[in-house]
Amino acid sequence: MASLQTPVCAFDTPAPDFSLPGVDGRVWTRDQCRGVGGLLVMFICNHCPYVKAVRERLVRDVKDLQALGIGCVAIMSNDPADYPEDSFQDMQRVAREFGYPFPYLYDETQGVARAYGAVCTPDFFGYNAALGLQYRGRLDESRKEAAAPDVRRDLFEAMREVAQTGRGPAEQAPSMGCSIKWRAG
Questions:
Q1: What sign does the dihedral 94-96-97-103 (CA atoms) show?
Q2: How many CA atoms lie within 13 A of 154 on its CB side?
Q3: Cα separations (Å) of 155 from 10, 52, 64, 181?
Q4: How far apart are CA 138 and CA 172, in angstroms?
Q5: Residue range 34-56, pLDDT digits in tens
Q6: Domain range for residue 97?
Q7: Cα separation of 174 and 163, whole Å?
């Protein structure tokens, strides 16, 4: 389980389109997920300790961002053949258990993760209303364990700025997590 950090934000890179099945039985596209203030695309999974440490915070921050007009979506791109905990059925269970207030989508071909340049879980891509990239950073100081409850909410603060101004902060701390589990070949 390799631990990786995300690259720095390439400002204004356009958000790739997608059409993926969700745990709710619907097929979702990028434009169905976006909000009037922007779009947050999160690459997460079920088995990663970095994601497990922040699931409650993800739910909290997404609800707060949705109130600001930011649409949010989570995508699971790992190969469940090697990581059965990331199966579609377990995605459905985890989404119910934690009350995910966002579409949780399965990227079976891993093509969406490749199009976005996702490298780890969690990996956050924050876009403005014009779908230009403005944030590629961490949720907060959490790692494999949740950080203290009063730490700065990096992702929330950055995306609030994006919703209000259309631009993300110049200084961004990279996200850290488990590598995407790519299929062989």
A1: positive
A2: 19
A3: 16, 17, 11, 24
A4: 8
A5: 999 999 999 999 999 999 999 99
A6: 3-179
A7: 20
176-179 and 120-121 strand pairing = antiparallel
Cα Dmax for the chain: 43
pLDDT of residue 153: 98
CA distances from 143 to 11, 28, 137, 180 (A): 25, 30, 13, 16
Q: What's the CA gap between 21 and 29, in Å, rounded?
A: 9
Nearest to 135 by CA among 99, 159, 163, 107: 159
Per the document, the length of the chain is 185
Pairing of strands 176-179, 123-127: unpaired
Q: Where are the alpha helices (DSSP H) in 4-54?
A: 30-33, 49-52
Residues 175, 51: Cα–Cα separation, whole Å: 11
In CATH, what number is assigned to the domain containing residue 157?
3.40.30.10
112 within domain boundaries: yes
Q: Per the domain annotation, does 184 fall within a domain?
A: no
Q: How many domains does the structure of the chain reveal? A: 1
Q: How far is CA 15 from CA 11, 30, 84, 114, 160, in A?
A: 11, 8, 29, 12, 18
* pTM, two decimal places: 0.97
